[in-house]
Protein: UDP-glucose 6-dehydrogenase
Amino acid sequence: MKMAVVGTGYLGATHAACMARLGHEVMGVDIDEAKLSKLRSGEMPFYEPGLEELTREMVASGRLQFTSSYEEAAEFADVHFLAVGTPQKRGEFAADVSALESVIKLLAPLINRPAVILGKSTVPVGTAQEMRALARSLSPVGDDLELGWNPEFLREGHAIKDTLEPDRLVVGVADDGAGRAEAVAREVYADLLANGVPFLLTDLATAELAKTAANAFLATKISFINAIAEVCEAAGADVVQLADALGYDSRIGRAFLNAGLGFGGGCLPKDIRAFMARAGEMGAAQALTFLREVDSINMRRRTQMVEMVKQSCGELLGAHVAVLGAAFKPDSDDVRDSPALNVAGQLQLQGATVNVYDPKAMDNSRALFPTLGYSTSALEACDNADVVVVLTEWKEFRNLDPVELAGIVRQRKMIDGRNCLDPARWIGAGWQYRGFGRASSRTAN
Ligand code: UGA
Structure:
């Protein structure tokens, strides 16, 4: 099929390359020329494992191209995916869907043959219906332009696998346009469907909500275990063993029960807030008041982390703190609402000398927090540190050698903000170890 993917951020760039991998002819569309010329030369504007190689291969195959011209995209494609950002509005909880609206306003008037638009961005429920009406009112083909919603569930760091082997495909369609949007979606994803990926055909609102509810559930699961971690600390119990015990229950599952610094990034925090805001607009605010608590348990992790560092150093003023990790999660260079960077900033503002190291997120971190100290390796960051804090669970940090590090730091104090280290190894090497909600938060003997 010939398709356009509008927006070439994490979502759009991945979707475009993966659709080309499935054999489709794909045109990635963006207004940012600098980004496009990088993508054309096979260079990624962000880090995602495997995506640079895949994009290069697809560009070389001739099945993937990039343009800033909506005319070209409208002329080229029979199906148009919308993958632009829907960030949190400044000073409000609601999502800003203006980028989506402006894409429809630019693209729809240029679509002059029957076509299908499939929205992928995460949107407040009701948006798809509005965008469908807007697109049809602006296109010369009117109702021959169909719009469905096909939310994306990919995770950063696993984006290619999540796109090519998703847990499910959800396609929301309007009653009177169901047939066409469904047929196009089935053709786009034919290979995935042949592999047995479940296909759920819903109305537009259900599809939009399926995405928002999934992220709200994941956020709730993380905050649940973090709240339990606080109780574990009070009771002298171990939240990691407890999560294992819960996880064996197939009704619960072990995933997303890692207690620690909590969730960040460009999705979960803004999505739960946008969900609350939209529920309020629809008169259902009460249904989601629990998400406020989910949000505040999560934000509390960051201040608790600063408190733990403070306790460990005696006082922050003049303390040397090595911060390992700046990305919001491993295998990503994304620092949007990153708990790690947020904590690093707070530590510095309270007088500590902070040295940050992250395997991939250095440039993005510097751009956001130019005043923090940055090191070129984990060992350099730990040089003369009074305390080392692991805030993103990169493999490189999980594999750090406590004996080697002991010779570099000023004091052997490790705070494991992601409960990703083996306490016995660190304690055995003479370190004082602290995790979140862990019984093993103690010193050797
Ligand atoms: C999330 C969802 O998992 C995807 O399904 C969704 O498509 C995406 O948002 C989106 O809306 O675009 P992502 O933000 O890439 O994906 O990352 P996650 O793997 O969900 O992690 C989010 C945050 O939760 C990270 O900061 C991570 O460190 C934290 N987390 C995750 C925990 O603190 N504990 C856990 O057990 C799991």
